[in-house]
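Key idea: predict the complex, not the pieces.
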Amino acid sequence: DAGVTQSPTHLIKTRGQQVTLRCSPKSGHDTVSWYQQALGQGPQFIFQYYEEEERQRGNFPDRFSGHQFPNYSSELNVNALLLGDSALYLCASSSGTGQLSGNTIYFGEGSWLTVV
Amino acid sequence: KNQVEQSPQSLIILEGKNCTLQCNYTVSPFSNLRWYKQDTGRGPVSLTIMTFSENTKSNGRYTATLDADTKQSSLHITASQLSDSASYICVVSTSRDGYNKLIFGAGTRLAVHP
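Result:
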């Protein structure tokens, strides 16, 4: 049973470019959340997708957008990249919108984005 | 403001020793509290999940406690091993508008030396 898979694992982009990160949730999970984790910091919530719709959003600008497909996989898109966007981007999957009730949330290994 | 604060920021211990990591939170309403272990450059891995009514939960050599009255939690690691070297993140789940949200602490970086 594959866990949460993310791609690519590492990538380097220049300022102003656009990037797309991908995530496949754990089998049986239908909810995907994205987080940004700067070096030495805890993850910061970007947004959550459930039933192909964005259900919650953190304090991130519109440059950050996403999508969820019918097979529950998800993409995170970041436009007009800034140096400060350099971070580890984590995808987390769960069942339902429940980051609650003791449901275990599984994280992928993350995508390391470096903006130069 | 919903916040999760962890202490110490970093910790060095010798292999075989015990240690305790602290987590204080000001999150309301409270749904549950989770501890995660995150190896450098890897995704977080769940250690424990505790709801309001639980005050202790173990996972092997890891034991988490929760005092919902004082809004404090601790993670105790017994007989530490070199592989315990990682960041340990305290996460509190809250709810708003019918949806639940995770509030992450900055983590405690633990280094276990031989």
